[in-house]
Design goal:
Elements: H1 14-22, H2 34-61, H3 65-79, H4 85-101, H5 105-121, H6 127-144, H7 147-163, H8 167-179
């Protein structure tokens, strides 16, 4: 299973920085610009993660599954050290989709589990992203044969798609539920 996000190893205290600014001495090894450069480094990491995710999406469209998997994995590794949990959830779900497309349900399931856990833990997840993550897990569960869980997942996805007026999503969920006898 994928690991949890780690907190930055060197948190900067604004009280410490303001104290050092008052007495004219910077933090050892610090020029006074470190907090903003740390922010820029975080932004650079997030930009890199986004670029890698975008590259993975292009590779997926070009049917380069190995390249897509590799770049999604790199993006996920970076996002684990960033604060945007929704971006991590979205990217982990896409990594799961790549594994699923490759016939690796054993690798896809933990990705979907993690994405759903991240969305559930967030106070305001994007409903369409949550619906799509539930959809991906429902497809996988339907393939592995857990009927009750599959029915529950298709029902949840259908409710979310209906609330967003995504007619194609509602129609697919309804059709899949009908095939399950619901």
């Amino acid at each position: 299973m994928l690991t949890q996000c780690r907190k930055p190893a060197t948190p900067w205290s604004s009280a410490r920085n303001s104290r050092n600014a008052r007495n004219g001495s910077p933090t050892p090894g610090h020029t006074g610009s470190r907090p903003s450069s740390r922010f820029a480094a975080t932004t650079a990491r997030e930009l890199l993660a986004n670029a890698l995710r975008s590259l993975a999406e292009v590779e997926r469209k070009l049917r380069d599954a190995d390249g897509a998997r590799r770049h999604y994995e790199e993006s996920v590794a970076i996002l684990r050290n960033c604060h945007d949990r929704l971006r991590l959830a979205h990217t982990v779900r896409h990594l799961g989709d790549v594994h699923h497309d490759a016939g690796r349900a054993d690798l896809a399931a933990p990705c979907y589990d993690e994405a759903l856990a991240l969305y559930s833990a967030h106070p305001d997840p994007a409903p369409l992203d949550l619906a799509n993550a539930i959809h991906s897990m429902a497809v996988l569960e339907q393939e592995v044969g857990d009927r009750e869980k599959t029915i529950a997942l298709w029902g949840q996805a259908r409710e979310l798609y209906a609330s967003l007026q995504v007619d194609a999503g509602v129609a697919e969920c309804t059709a899949r539920l009908a095939k399950l006898g619901v």
